[in-house]
Amino acid sequence: MKSPRRITLCLMFIVIYSSKATLNWNSESAIHPLSLDEQELSGEEALRQKQDAATKSSAAEEYTIDIEISFENASSLDSVKAYLNSLSFPILENYTDQITNIVSINVTTVCRLAASETWCSCEPGYGWPRERCLHNLTCQEHDVFLPGHQCSCLKELPSKGPFCQLQEDITLNMRVKLNVGFQEDLMNTSSALYRSYKTDLETAFRKGYETLPGFKGVTVTGFKSGSVIVTYELQTTAPSLDLIHKANERVVQSLNQTYRMDDNSFQAFSGNEIKLSVTPEIIFEGDTVSLVCENDILSSNVSWRHKEQELEIQNSSRFSIYTAIFNMTSISKLTIHNITLGDAGEYICKLILDIFEYESKKKIDVIPIQILANEEMKVICDNSPVSVSCCSDSKIDWIKTEWKQEGNINISGSAEIHIDSLCSKYVFRVDRTQCPSGSSGTTVVYTCEFISGYGARGSADTKVTFTSAANLTITPDPISVSEGQNFSIKCISDVSNYDEVYWNTSAGIKVHQRFYTTRRYPNGAESVLAVKTSTREWNGTYHCVFRYKNSYSIANKDVIVHPLPLELNIMVDPLEATVSCSGSHHIKCCIEEDGDYKVTFQIGSLSLPAAKEVKEKQVCYKHNFNANSVSWCSKTVDVFCHFTNAVNNSVWSPSMKLNLVPGENITCQDPIIGVGEPGKVIQKLCQFSNVPNSPGSPVGGIITYKCVGSQWEEKRNDCISAAINSLLKLAKALVKSPSQDEKLPTYLKNLSVSIDKLEHEISSSPGSLGAVINILDLLSTVPTQVNSEMMMHVLSTVNVILGKPVLNTWKILQQQQTNQSSQLLHSVERFSQALRSGDSPPLSFSQTNVQMSSMVIKSSHLKTYQQKFVFSDSDLWGNVVIDKSHLENLQPDSSVVTMAFPTLQAILAKDIQENNLAESLVMTTTVSHNITMPFRISMTFKNSSPSGGETKCVFWNFGLANNTGGWDSSGCYVEEGDGDNVTCICDHLTSFSILMSADTPDPSSLLGILLDIISYIGVGFSILSLAACLVVEVVVWKSVTKNRTSYMRHTCIVNIAASLLIANTWFIVVAAIQDNHYILCKTACVVATFFIHFFYLSVFFWMLTLGLMLLYRLVFILHETSRSTQKAIAFCLGYGCPLAISVITLAATQPREVYTRKNVCWLNWEDTKALLAFAIPALIIVVVNITITVVVITKILRPSIGDKPCKQEKSSLFQISKSIGVLTPLLGLTWGFGLTTVFPGTNLAFHIIFAILNVFQGLFILLFGCLWDLKVQEALLSRFSLSRWSSQHSKSTSLGSSTPVFSMSSPISRRFNNLFGKTVSTPQLFHPAHGIYRKCPLLG
Predict the structure, then answer these.
(1) 795 neighbors 847 (Cβ within 8 angstroms)
(2) Which burial class, exposed, middle or buried, applies to 852 when counting CB atoms under 10 A from its CB (0-12, 13-18, 19+)?
(3) Average pLDDT over the chain, rounded to whole?
(4) Exposure b/e, 836-845, CB count within 10 A at least 16 = b
(5) pLDDT of residue 913
(6) Is pLDDT above 90 for 1017?
């Protein structure tokens, strides 16, 4: 126990023993084994070196011994300190078995009396431990340490150690502001400015801080902009705030004033870290998170900041901050409610005390909660247990799970929670009563929600659609049919919700979807399996399957198909035969398979027995027909085979025609072909003819014979080889099979192999070639999808039949005017449209006669479609380009397929205008899905005929020529042609090529341009002439229409001119639009064609009206008709008939869209011959008018007694006859040449003549229809001449005393009139011999 009068000195010995012996001290000193940490020992490095030098034993232990010494006299303290400082360490002490080294002895603590208290202070370099400062009273006013660090003075010596401890060094990170401009050189540590600033500032810092206790040094670490911010590190022991402020003042005083240091800008950042904790440790979205900041610095000036958001956090609905000082500790708590992913990041807790800032950082991560569940479920209401489950993808301490439901029906259940597996399940049952058919298809949303202990929530929805189990009702009546008959099965469901409906056989084979249709109704659905022609393959049980998710509703139906030959499979002989009235002829019907049939031959109501004959697989029924058994000589009778099966169903064979003739007319006789008259043509099935048959496999097809002289000659051979005939029969059976899509791949493979072997038979037999085409046509209607292997087999077959050895056979088919080349192309297109490559690489195929390339549209890797085809053997090439901007409109995974054929163009039927085909490729491009958006494809062809004629881009239109196909240029045009190649642009897809028109001048050629100029200028001149004619008629109308004949004549001329004027105007406007490549819509083109047709016809019918009027006035001289009646008849004939013809033509052709030509707005010739609706009436009118003219002129020149006309009548009749006689031949001649240009192969001379004559149509009407009229001339002279001579001339003309130059009697006019007859004397109106007036019927 210490006396209050005494001075207590505490010493610390560091002693090292070389053995592990335990020291026993008889004093109260505390002996502590050395357990200082590394940081504490770093300050005694010199001492450690001495220790190591003195102690070499690896087993030596180090102890720290605190010794308390009390002095009665305070003056003894200084002498003890001096003595201790004089000692030389280490001090070695030897014992019998131990070596002890005293490394150091230091004074640590001195306690003195101060008034009534004992103040225990630490010697320099030592300080009281922090826990003593917290639990003992301190002498704060004399403390030299920073708050929160060690203290230097206590008001009482602790009863139990430790005493003052060796003081720690700290490094303060500080900064101060210089109010000078920042220079970039301060960023460069090697610059002179940087070194100058650093030297001056460090000198001032040392002068200011060297008075601090434990000062070690100061270093400038850098400069920052913002004026100039100086950062530096101060190494010292923990000084008090007062000492720091005083040291800062000395720094300012020591620094040159030019630096303008701001004495209020000092800031210090202590290394003393704040304790920052986060709860919970793993944070999930939605949790309530607490961040707690603890510090021994007793200050409530604490702030929180989110580093990423760079904003100080304030109290809000989601953030709350609580700060307090508790138990000598500053505590601040930040609470984040319902934390989000955006709240993740680094949080900073900052405490500020005077110039010191203390901060701690903590980064938190927010993990999103994901609850996994099926988004949709489909449940059948069949009372089966159903479970809806959800699971958490994160391992969270969930405390509970809740299930909720929302929907129009309430289907409740029970929840099962499996916390260990982080899953929850909701189990329920539902029967038909809970979801009747009215609510079938109702969706209920089930929501599962997980809740954690810290408030996080995660949920997921599952949409459950409840559907009643389908009750199926199937056709109740038993189905029993015979082959060839049709049947249908109706399967009705009472619910409308299903995923799939299909039919399959009892063997599990799905029926091809072409055989059934499915319809959905509001309260149900139905599927109908309909078979038009049943075969034995349809015999069996069929299942109607409605599938909804994994639930299947099935209804079964048995179908019994009884054997009965199909009509097409009954082979008859003869097809047609000649039988002598006194002779006989063998008739027979054969089928491939035997059966229990009753067979008779029927001739009308006469039934003849049949004898059965079996030969290998073929069964024939025969009868020897005796012609003398019937009384039908010189007649043709039809004979049928009638097959009846066991269930009394029957079928009739194709007809056999027997021509009964007298025996003396027969000249040709053959035991197989039969007999016939001269010139008789008959057909026979090839298997019953002289064509050799293979055993067990008869040939197919028909052969045609003609009786020439006394011998039968083969006229046409369409026989099909036995092997190909067998393939054809299999193909016909396949398309009737319920499982045709499954059989198709194998059949295509066998077909490809067989055709390759049978190339010689195909090249020598048009019938075999036609059969192969029919096979491909049949098969192309089967598949909904074609894979790469199937397409390869198809193209291999096509390559054979398009080979050069087969081209001669194709020519025979062309001569027979079949459309099988178009049929082949259509088949190949259908196969290409069904091609689906899937995930396999795009298919590419290259053979001598066909090449193919394809591409699958991928929206993620869209690129321009570009393919090139080169056929070196044919020296032809071409390429196809579709820009990717047009491919964007196609459905993803669509297939674009292009095929090129070097020989196909030669075998396709020629263009309807017989344009010469340029030798080029035919390229077919198809897309697997329909194109709904505007489309553009560019193709380049090698032009093997670069010289002569117009090049046209065409496509094969399957709808032309009554659906037999033809070349069409609609939607295509030539973009570029440099002689060797032609680039075509089209707005649709199909098969394309180019045509060369050798006889039609190229529009870009000199002749083409010349014809265009002639046409435009000529028609324009004609329009002006017609307009002038109408003006003249208006001017002279009153002067020249004083009698009925003149009135009607000028009415006809005016309507002729007006009709031709309107027709020419329509014609030139439409031609200008099309020649400049402007798009004219189809409707506008139809309207223009209709009016051009109507008004051109009106021209001719008004000419006919003029002729008929002339004939009427001469034949019916004494018959009187009013002017209004004549005019009504004239207008009905002039406009009514053309209107009727035009409307009938439009109605008959436009519904099929073949009213106009494809590239010109004029009547169609190629498809419907609609042009005849103009040509025939026009030519008939020309003939009629010329005939009338001849009759009239003859009548005038040789009048009958009493038929002598008056002078005015005669003049008018002559004018009419002259007009008809001149205009009719000219107009007829013009349009005669015009019609010749329509036909293919027309010589260029006809184009030129038509263009020239067309120029003068209007001029002809002006001159010969108008100005040639004497009265018109006189009226014009009278109206426009102001001279006296003109007046006298008119007078003398009216009196008949003079003869004008254009009068009927003038020498000049007489020459023209001689063409139609001579001038006759003028009759007198009053005949003195009779004393009566003779009325002129032409006078009004």
Answers:
(1) yes
(2) buried
(3) 77
(4) bbeeeeebeb
(5) 41
(6) no
Q: Which residues does 18 contact at the CB level (< 8 Å), separation at least 6? A: 55, 57, 59, 60, 98, 99, 100, 101
Helix (H) or strand (E) holding 333: strand 329-336
Round to whole Å and give the CA distance between 699 and 809: 18
Residues with Cβ within 8 Å of 266's Cβ and at least 6 positions away in sequence, in order, are 174, 175, 176, 248, 355
Which residue bears the tokens 């490094």?
171
Interatomic CA distance for residues 1042 and 1036, integer angstroms: 11
- The mean pLDDT value for 994-1002 works out to 54
d(CA 332, CA 997): 97
Task: Write out the two tokens for 1065.
Answer: 């105007």
What phi-psi label fits residue 383: left (phi over 0), alpha (psi between -120 and 50 degrees) or beta? Answer: left
Are the beta carbons of 1136 and 1108 closer than 8 angstroms? no
Is 346:329 a contact under the CB 8 Å cutoff?
no
Beta strands in 131-192 (DSSP E): 153-154, 165-166, 170-178
CA distance linking residue 644 with residue 341, whole number of Å? 84
223-252 per-position pLDDT tens digit: 998 789 999 998 887 777 788 888 899 999
Hey, what are 1186's tokens?
Answer: 């010329």
* Amino acid in the structure at residue 966: G
CA trace torsion 476, 481, 483, 488 (10° rounding): -30
More confident residue, 1317 or 303: 303
**Both tokens of residue 241?**
């705030």
Alpha-carbon span 1201 to 1196, nearest angstrom = 12
- 461 or 72: whose pLDDT is higher? 461
> CA 1019 to CA 1256: how far, in whole Å?
8
**Nearest CA-CA partner of 479 in 526, 546, 527, 538:** 538
Q: Exposed/middle/buried for 622, CB within 10 Å: 0-12, 13-18, 19+?
A: middle
Rounded CA gap, 842 and 853, in Å?
7
Amino acid 671 reads: P
Question: How far apart (Å, rounded) are the C-alpha atoms in residues 921 and 903?
Answer: 7
Q: Which residues pair with 519 in a beta bridge?
A: 526
For residues 512 and 514, give the distance between their C-alpha atoms in angstroms, rounded to a whole number. 6
Parallel, antiparallel or unpaired: strands 472-474 and 487-493? antiparallel
